[in-house]
């Protein structure tokens, strides 16, 4: 048993940190964080976000990794080990990543399309691409296949190895794009001011502080991969060589750094464009989910050949971030399937990704309809991606995160946990 555990786990502490940081850094950082920042009034949102990471995120992450490490098993077994009645929280911790895999893969497909299409130009393609079912299915397939190949390799030779190569690559590209953006000249200082100097009066249009704080909190949970089995499952692959507190700190710092850099890459470019082209930010759609897929391509297009090159690297970076995140989502479900049904890894991940792929088709069609002002496959008046995102983010994840903290603080006991950690 010891032998198999060793064989299945991360080879080193740093490998675990790279993999967990890979899970955390994703579309949440590069796509959601910048547009939520602009919805939340700029720098004030950034400040609230950092406070949420510091005061809620770090502790929750430590609890989740610890629950996994302690049990060396999937979320259901791990929660049951803490208390026999907690198995259902483990089950929810597996269902959430599965749901997220479905819609995350659709967005991942978009990022692959935008990368390969960078030289042809992405400005204005959102409507036609999102509406073309076969293209969306094709690029979703490519994205899932990339993830599948990595997860198939196993924890050490697949996930850990890929993360150790891809995460430094992502960081280098990010630094390059930020430098490029900061050197654009006109408009850059206004962009920086908007992003970094809090204007408390400007908080959301309707003075809705509660909504902004909740948005910052939800964003912190999602970005740090909390409130579901991801950190727990990766934690279950660590051994005593791993320092949990240090690792948690490093993962949180890296994730927050990438989110902050992403804003630093995007806002100066947006303000540069609005200053030089005389377009308003509202018209440019800065304050919505289209920031990455509609606004930025327009800005890149305006920069000639340099813009095409930067676009390619930028979207390649987004693909990397998304792949290293989706593998952690898939791994949660795969680990459970392997342990529960005693299947081999390749068959388990094959089944998981085939079902996720099948379910991603209606989600992709529904999203395409939303981008084209239609309502095909809408439920409760929203597209399926928004629906699934809302259910997981606002209901399931906070509840699961709460239980993770209660499990460590009261059931295992704060003192016991502190000693073990
Ligand atoms: N943290 C990822 C992001 O910011 O995009 C998304 C994510 C990955 C959430 C893995 C949850 C998870 F388990």
Short note summarizing the structure:
The chain contains 18 helices and no strands. It has helices spanning 2-8, 13-24, 27-39, 43-71, 75-82, 87-116, 125-131, 133-152, 155-182, 188-196, 209-223, 229-236, 244-277, 281-284, 290-301, 304-341, 345-371, 384-420. The site of 4-fluoro-L-phenylalanine has 16 residues, from helix 2, helix 3, helix 6, helix 11 and helix 16.
Word description of this protein:
The chain has 421 residues and is mainly alpha-helical. It is 80% helix and 0% strand. It has 18 helices and no strands. Helix 2 runs parallel beside helix 13, helix 12 (229-236) packs across helix 16 and helix 15 packs antiparallel against helix 16. The radius of gyration is 21 Å and the shape is globular. The chain starts with a helix and ends with a helix. Mean pLDDT is 93; it is low at 1-6. The chain binds 4-fluoro-L-phenylalanine. The site of 4-fluoro-L-phenylalanine (PFF) has 16 residues, from helix 2, helix 3, helix 6, helix 11 and helix 16.
Features:
mainly alpha; 421 residues; disordered N terminus; binds 4-fluoro-L-phenylalanine
Mean pLDDT: 93
Shape: globular
What proportion of the residues form beta strands (DSSP E)? under 5%
Share of residues in helices: over 70%
The radius of gyration is 21 Å
Secondary-structure content class: mainly alpha
Question: Sheet with the most strands?
Answer: none
Residue runs with pLDDT of under 50 for 5 or more positions: 1-6
Distance between the termini: 23 Å
Counting DSSP E segments of at least 2 residues, the number of strands comes to 0
- Series of secondary-structure elements, N-terminal to C-terminal: HHHHHHHHHHHHHHHHHH
User: Treating each run of at least 4 consecutive H or I residues as one helix, how many helices?
Assistant: 18
Bound compounds: 4-fluoro-L-phenylalanine
């Amino acid at each position: 048993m010891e032998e198999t555990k060793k064989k299945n786990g991360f080879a080193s502490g740093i490998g675990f940190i790279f993999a967990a940081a890979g899970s955390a850094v994703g579309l949440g950082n590069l796509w959601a964080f910048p547009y939520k920042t602009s919805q939340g009034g700029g720098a004030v949102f950034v400040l609230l976000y950092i406070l949420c990471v510091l005061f809620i995120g770090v502790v929750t992450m430590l609890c989740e990794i610890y629950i996994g490490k302690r049990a060396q098993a999937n979320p259901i077994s791990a929660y049951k080990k803490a208390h026999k009645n907690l198995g259902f929280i483990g089950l929810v911790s597996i269902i959430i990543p599965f749901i997220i895999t479905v819609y995350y893969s659709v967005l991942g497909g978009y990022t692959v399309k935008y990368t390969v299409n960078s030289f042809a130009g992405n400005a204005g393609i959102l409507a036609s691409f999102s509406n073309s079912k076969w293209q969306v299915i094709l690029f979703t397939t490519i994205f899932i296949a990339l993830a599948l190949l990595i997860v198939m390799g196993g924890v050490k030779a697949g996930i850990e190895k890929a993360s150790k190569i891809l995460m430094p690559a992502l960081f280098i590209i990010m630094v390059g794009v930020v430098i490029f953006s900061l050197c654009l000249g006109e408009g850059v200082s206004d962009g920086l001011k908007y992003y970094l100097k809090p204007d408390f009066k400007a908080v959301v249009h309707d003075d809705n502080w509660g909504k902004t704080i909740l948005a910052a909190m939800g964003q912190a949970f999602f970005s740090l991969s909390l409130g579901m089995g991801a950190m727990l499952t990766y934690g279950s692959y660590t051994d005593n060589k791993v320092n949990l507190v240090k690792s948690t700190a490093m993962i949180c710092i890296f994730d927050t750094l990438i989110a902050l850099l992403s804003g630093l890459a995007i806002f100066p470019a947006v303000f540069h464009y609005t200053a030089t082209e005389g377009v308003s930010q509202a018209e440019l759609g800065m304050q919505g989910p289209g920031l990455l897929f509609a606004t930025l391509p327009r800005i890149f297009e305006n920069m000639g050949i340099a813009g095409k090159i930067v676009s390619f690297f930028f979207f390649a970076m987004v693909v990397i971030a998304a792949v290293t995140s989706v593998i952690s989502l898939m791994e949660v479900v795969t680990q459970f399937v392997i342990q529960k049904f005693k299947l081999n890894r390749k068959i388990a991940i094959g089944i998981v990704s085939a079902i996720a792929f099948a379910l991603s088709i209606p989600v992709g069609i529904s999203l395409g309809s939303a981008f084209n002002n239609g309502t095909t496959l809408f439920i409760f008046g929203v597209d399926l991606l928004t629906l699934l995102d809302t259910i997981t983010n606002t209901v399931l994840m906070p509840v699961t995160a709460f239980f993770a903290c209660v499990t460590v603080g009261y059931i295992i006991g704060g003192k016991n946990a502190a000693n073990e950690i």
